[in-house]
Design brief:
Length: 518
C-alpha cells in the first residue's frame, strides 16, 4: 500500500481545487531557518526575479469578482487590494483606506481613503472608483457568501475623501467582506484578461497553460515588494515540476507532498510546513442513490480511517476535521467533531445492512487528476471501503472537466477535493450547504440547517451567531453530509537564499515579503 501511495505522489502534483485554502500562521520549517521564513543569517537583498512552480493554470477569469478557482485568487492576492486586507495573523488592516471605524450599532462603516494610492495604470484611486467597485461586486460576484453580505448594504456614499457604508442590519463579520471587495478603476473594462489593481505587484502577461508574469509596482502606496519580477510557471504534469526542481530551474514550489519534499531532499532548497486551510472530504452527492440515504453516508464515515489516511499519504502530517470548519476558524472550530465517527467497520456494515445494502454497493470517486493529495487520499479510501463490501472506482479527470461537470454540473456520485474560505467568517465555509445556494454541489437539503444559517445571518450578537454556526457545523457532521477527512499539510520549497515567506489563515500567496539574502 505504501509503495502505491509513494508512486502516486511522484506521478502528480496538486495546487488545491477551486475552493481550497492554503496555510496558517502555525507554520514550521522542516529543515531551514526560522518558523516564519525570516532569515536567521545573511543580509536582505532588494531586487531579483523569482520563478514559482504551480500545478494549476489560472483557467478562469482574472476579474476580481468572477474568480472561482482558489489558485487564481491565491496568485492575484498580489495584484488586488480592498479598503482593508488580511494579514498573516488573521487580522484585517487598512489598505486602500487609511483607517476604518464602525458605529456602536454596527450599521455604519467609515473609511477615509489613503492619500495618493495609484492603480497600476497610473491613475489615482478616487471615491468614484470605490463606489463603483462596491456596486459592481454586489451585482456580479460569483461568491455567494460575499453577495449575501453585500445585500445588506443600503448605501455607499462619499463625503470628500471618506467613504461611508451603511447597512440595513449589523454583521459582526462585515469588515472581512469589505476586504473581498477589491478596488478597481471605474473606467476600465479589461479586468478579465489584463487585471489592474493597487497591490504591490502589477500584472504583466499571461500565457495560457504556461505562466503568469507580474512585476514590482514601483508606485505602491506601502512598503512595497522586494522582488522585481515574479513568474508563476505552470506544471500540470508533476513529473515536469520534479524535473524542474531537480534542475534548480524554479526558485520556489508550493503545495507539495511530503514524498515530493523527501525526493528533492536538503541542499539547494529548504522546506516550510504549514496547513492548507481547507476542508478535504469525500464529498457525496446527496441527490444520488445510495447517498440520499443518511445511514449509508454515516456508514461511509465509520468505514474511513482518517488516521491511516494521514499516515499513508503524509507520514501523519495534517489535521483531522469532522465538519466543514477547519482549525484556523478558531471560535467556530469544534475539535470534538473530529471523533464523531471513530473507525468501526462492524458499525459501518451494520448501518449498510439497515439501509438495505447488506452486500455493499459500487460507487465512483471523481478526482481532479493533477491534485496529488486528493488522488492519494482517494486511493486509500478505495481500499478502506473494500473492507466493508463497497467497491469504489476512481475516475480521474482534468481540472477543467471537474470544474464544469462535477462542480458546476453536479454530475458525480462522490469526489475528493478541498474547500476553502475567501475570508475568516464562518459563512464563507458554511453558506454553500444551504439548500438554495448555487454552490451547493452536493445537493444537501436540510430545513433545520437552512434555519440555523438564516438565524446566524440575521443576528447582530456575535456570541449568538457563533453558537448558531457551531450548531450548523455539528448538524453537517450528525447527518454525515460528507465524509470529512482533514486540513491538508502544506509544504513549500524555497531556494536556501530566499526568506520572508509567510503562511496565511486564508488561501493566498503573499510574495511581497519574499526576498533574497546574501
Amino acid at each position: 500500500m505504501k509503495k502505491r501511495i509513494f508512486a502516486l505522489f511522484l506521478s502528480a502534483l496538486l495546487l488545491v481545487t477551486v475552493l481550497c485554502a492554503c496555510g496558517d500562521e502555525s507554520q514550521s520549517e522542516v529543515g531551514g531557518t526560522g518558523s516564519d521564513g525570516t532569515s536567521t543569517s545573511g543580509e536582505a537583498v532588494t531586487g531579483g526575479e523569482l520563478v514559482v512552480g504551480i500545478s494549476q493554470d489560472l483557467g478562469d477569469s482574472l476579474d476580481p469578482y468572477q474568480m472561482t478557482a482558489a489558485g487564481t485568487r491565491e496568485v492575484l492576492f498580489n495584484v488586488y487590494e480592498g479598503l482593508v486586507k488580511p494579514t498573516s495573523t488573521g487580522e484585517y488592516v487598512p489598505a486602500v483606506a487609511s483607517d476604518s471605524t464602525v458605529s456602536e450599532d454596527g450599521l455604519t462603516y467609515t473609511f477615509p481613503l489613503r492619500e495618493g494610492v495609484l492603480f497600476h495604470n497610473g491613475e489615482e484611486v478616487t471615491t468614484d472608483d470605490v463606489i463603483y467597485s462596491f456596486e459592481t461586486c454586489a451585482e456580479t460576484t460569483v461568491d455567494t457568501a460575499l453577495a449575501a453580505a453585500l445585500s445588506a448594504v443600503e448605501s455607499v456614499t462619499a463625503d470628500g475623501n471618506t467613504i461611508t457604508v451603511t447597512l440595513s442590519e449589523a454583521n459582526p463579520d462585515f469588515l472581512s467582506y469589505v476586504g473581498m471587495v477589491y478596488i478597481v478603476p471605474d473606467d476600465y473594462t479589461d479586468q478579465a484578461t489584463a487585471p489592474v489593481g493597487t497591490g504591490p505587484f502589477r500584472f504583466v502577461s499571461r500565457s495560457v497553460q504556461q505562466n503568469l508574469v507580474m512585476e514590482k509596482f514601483a508606485d505602491y502606496w506601502g512598503e512595497g515588494a522586494s522582488l522585481d519580477k515574479v513568474t508563476f510557471q505552470i506544471f500540470e504534469d508533476s513529473n515536469a515540476l520534479m524535473s524542474a526542481l531537480s534542475a534548480e530551474s524554479v526558485d520556489m514550489a508550493v503545495h507539495l507532498t511530503i514524498d515530493q519534499v523527501n525526493t528533492i531532499g536538503e541542499g539547494t532548497y529548504k522546506t516550510l510546513e504549514g496547513t492548507m486551510n481547507l476542508v478535504q472530504a469525500l464529498y457525496l452527492n446527496n441527490n444520488v442513490e445510495p447517498f440520499n440515504n443518511e445511514q449509508v453516508r454515516q456508514a461511509l464515515c465509520y468505514a474511513i480511517d482518517v488516521d491511516e489516511i494521514m499516515e499513508l499519504t503524509a507520514e501523519g502530517h495534517g489535521t483531522k476535521v469532522g465538519t466543514s470548519i477547519y482549525p484556523a476558524f478558531t471560535k467556530y472550530y469544534d475539535e470534538s467533531l473530529n471523533d464523531a465517527y471513530p473507525y468501526d467497520t462492524e458499525k459501518a456494515k451494520e448501518l449498510l445492512a439497515q439501509a438495505g445494502y447488506p452486500d455493499g454497493f459500487s460507487m465512483t470517486i471523481t478526482v481532479p487528476s493533477n491534485y496529488t493529495p486528493h488522488m492519494n487520499v482517494a486511493e486509500v479510501i478505495v481500499e478502506q471501503l473494500s473492507r466493508v463490501g463497497i467497491t469504489a472506482t476512481i475516475n480521474p479527470v482534468e481540472w477543467e472537466t471537474w470544474l464544469s461537470e462535477t462542480y458546476m454540473g453536479r454530475d458525480f456520485e462522490s469526489t475528493v477535493v478541498g474547500f476553502d474560505a475567501s475570508n475568516l467568517s464562518a459563512g464563507a465555509l458554511l453558506n454553500r450547504w444551504v439548500s438554495t445556494d448555487g454552490n451547493n454541489m452536493i445537493n444537501y437539503n436540510n430545513p433545520e440547517y437552512d434555519s440555523l444559517m438564516a438565524q446566524a445571518a440575521a443576528t447582530t450578537d456575535d456570541a449568538q451567531q457563533t453558537d448558531l454556526y457551531k450548531q450548523a457545523a455539528a448538524l453537517l457532521s450528525e447527518t454525515a453530509a460528507n465524509v470529512y477527512i482533514q486540513d491538508l499539510p502544506d509544504f513549500v520549497l524555497l531556494k536556501s537564499n530566499l526568506e520572508g515567506y509567510q503562511f496565511y489563515p486564508l488561501y493566498v500567496m503573499d510574495l511581497s515579503t519574499v526576498h533574497y539574502v546574501q
